[in-house]
Amino acid sequence: MLAWLIFVAEEGNLHSCTELPLQRNHLPICQFNDVRGRWDPPTHTSTSHLTSTKAITIHEGLAWLLCSLWLLVLEAVHCHCHCQWLSLPEVPSPSLYFTSLLFRLPFCFALSFSLLFQLQLSLPPVSDADGYLERTFLSPASVKAGNLIRQWMEEAGLRTWIDYMGNVHGRVEGRNESAEALLIGSHLDTVVDAGIFDGSLGIISALAALKVLNSNGKLQAVRRPIEVIAFSDEEGVRFQSTFLGSAAVAGILPASALHISDKSGVTVEDVLKDSSLDITEENLLKVKYEPRSVWGYVEVHIEQGPVLEHTGFPLAVVKGIAGQTRLKVTVRGSQGHAGTVPMSMRQDPMPAAAEGIVLLESLCKCPEEFLSYDGHCKSISLKSLSSSLVCTVGEITTWPSASNVIPGQVTFTIDLRTIDDMGREAVIYEFSNRMHQICDQRSVSCTIERKHDANAVLCDTELSMRLKSAAYSAVTRLTGEIQDEVPVLMSGAGHDAMAMSHLTKVGMLFVRCRGGVSHSPEENVLDEDVWTSGLAVLSFIETQL
Ligand SMILES: *[C@@H]1O[C@H](CO)[C@@H](O)[C@H](O)[C@H]1NC(C)=O
Ligand SMILES: [Zn+2]
User: Coiled-coil stretches, from where to where (predicted)?
Assistant: First the structure.
């Protein structure tokens, strides 16, 4: 439809989006729309869609007309059209006004049309499954997506290659190829029945920004090498091992990871070899980057939480990625008949577990009430702890799990995250003490095992400052209004930036998503916000010119 509109607006000249003259700061429209899961390259998308375009329906025609009127009104009163950032004069002379209007129309149409009606092209996303989105590590769809991304990278003027772990790289050397490189990336794999923005948005916004620079002839003039990386595995769906791609680049992926096998017994190594990637322990080391060759890593990602939508701001700077501990709590009592054992004579692990779970909730809601008077915890900044602490009991199992049996054993998991590593330890310490007290009082026994620990990652202050002003200028540029302060958020979810922090300083931007929903086909980002994220990357890179 977008292509069709441009086709109409260009008065019969058959242009695909990418063939349109890319002028000034115009971002490639089709590319942006591809982020919505339609991984076909823009040129093909547009032409194949053009040739298959049916006659315009009355509904579409009406919408188009309304849209044009709407735009004319906007223009006439010098409202801040969404296309204002095409850098045309604010108050043009009458003749310039009309030429600029003509110039802007195709883009305004395309943008506002999709803004207004959220048009969905009928092209399917690149997926391994029919009817839903699934791209796991080096699956056929992942390989296809990787090749498309590589093609887009080339169209954006980058030199490309695929490394031994299947990561897709596109790089421009700029003025000084021995300077430290800026890396920008995200992941191209997805969960099962995924949304189309998780991961892809970070790759596409970076590519779109570089494409603009390329079309402006500024790409080769960047001060330091800039490299976009589409990581092959972040979600870890197939091998239950997250960050296969970024951990290899950061040099923290152990060689043993190559021997992890999936459910059907196929190993990471097998999968890579099947894709003609000659992975060996020696070659794995070649994927690693030298810390001194890298300046920093930047990632744009959807928020996957509801805070930005609540604040009403499209972008946020990420302060850090929460550290995480997973615990397994086992409570053992004595199994018995639900009808014959009197209440006073029971050793029932279930109420103990229930009490522990409720305790955990209170502790995580108001840690200061539990920890502030504890001398041991003086050094913790309780404020940062209570603003970022989240605890979840997501799984409970009981044995023997029958309605007429007092359980002999209850097991539950705890997922505990916060940006404050010491605070996390203090909370675990406090919870363990109190849980054991509960179990003692109820004459049952408890064991608490630590299953997983990851420390928090703090984003670099300087990178964050630059990202913050880039986000600010992008939002201002797009809306034409002076904006509030860019929010600063903590990330509760892990990202490639976590692995990359072992290599270099990292910075992240979050993009607002509808209802905070992610890892679901319901995941959605406003077109406008997609544009804003691309503009923010552009503004950020412009500081590197
Ligand atoms: C290029 O970068 C290197 C490494 O940062 C630096 O030593 C050198 O001075 C730079 N060259 C120029 C011409 O700026
Ligand atoms: Zn992600």
Answer: none
Which residue's C-alpha comes closest to atom 1 of ligand 1?
A: 179
Same domain, yes or no: 67 and 206: no
Of the residues 415, 440, 455, which one is the last residue of a structural domain?
455
Per-residue model confidence as pLDDT tens digits over 399-412: 999 999 999 999 99
Instruction: Report DSSP letters for 467-512, one per residue.
Output: HHHHHHHHHHHHH-S--PPPPEEEE-S--HHHHHTTTS-EEEEEE-
Ligand 1 binding pocket includes 223 (Cβ within 6 Å): no
Burial 5-22 (b: 16+ CB within 10 A, else e): bbbebeeeeebbbbebeb
Strand 226-231 with 181-187, pairing? parallel
pLDDT tens digits, 315-324: 999 999 999 9
| Nearest ligand atom owner, CA of 181 | 1
CA of 139 to the centre of ligand 2 (A): 17
Start-end of H helices in 25-119: 29-34, 42-52, 58-76, 94-117
Which of 173, 177, 178 maximizes ligand 1 atoms within 8 Å of its Cβ, making it the mutation to test the pocket?
178
pTM: 0.75
- Residue identified by tokens 């390329």 is 214
Residue whose entry in the numeric block shows the structure tokens 């339609």: 38
**3-state SS of 130-149?**
CCCCCCCCCCHHHHHHHHHH
The answer to whether the beta carbons of residues 459 and 508 sit under 8 Å apart is yes
Q: Can you give the CATH number for the domain in which 417 is found?
A: 3.30.70.360
Give the number of the ligand closest to the Cα of residue 294.
1
